[in-house]
Amino acid sequence: QVQLVESGGGLVQAGGSLRLSCADSGRTFSSYTMGWFRQVPGKEREFVAAINWSGGRTYYVDSVKGRFTISRDNAKNTVYLQMNSLKPEDTAVYYCAANPDIYAYSRTSAAGYRYWGQGTQVTVSS
After folding, report:
1. What phi and psi values does residue 88 have, to the nearest 5 degrees?
2. How far is CA 106 from the centre of its chain?
3. For residue 39, what is the DSSP state?
4. Phi/psi at 35 (nearest 5 deg)?
5. Residue 15 above 90 pLDDT?
6. Higher pLDDT, 2 or 24
7. CA distances from 82 to 11, 31, 36, 75, 101 (A)
8. In contact, 94 and 36? CB cutoff 8 Å
9. Taking the alpha carbons of 23, 54, 64, 95 in that order, is the dihedral positive or negative?
10. Is 25 exposed, middle or buried (CB count within 10 Å of its CB: 0-12, 13-18, 19+)?
11. Mean of the per-residue pLDDT values for the chain?
12. Are 60 and 106 in contact (CB under 8 A)?
């Protein structure tokens, strides 16, 4: 069983940085593709980034390339999202999610993600 808990959200000024963490209390973390999504009220959940089981493959939505970095530490059952040069349009609730398909890291659909965290709010002020 996968249980995901996000942390690290908050309020930051434009141009600032935040690092989100997502910890899994289960025993199978290393076998999952991990992704980060975000959602603002009234809009669909948007893919942000994903990483394969080993951490050797990553994929990003164009709007965050060069600013965000996804990484994972399988020894700590944790995935991270380092967010730099934040913009007001990055404001959203950010969710981490786990996908049992090890080849899913380059897919942007939320459909294959089986487990989700509760979300953490990121607010970027202008």
Report:
1. -55, -30
2. 14
3. E
4. -135, 160
5. yes
6. 24
7. 15, 22, 11, 19, 24
8. yes
9. negative
10. exposed
11. 96
12. no
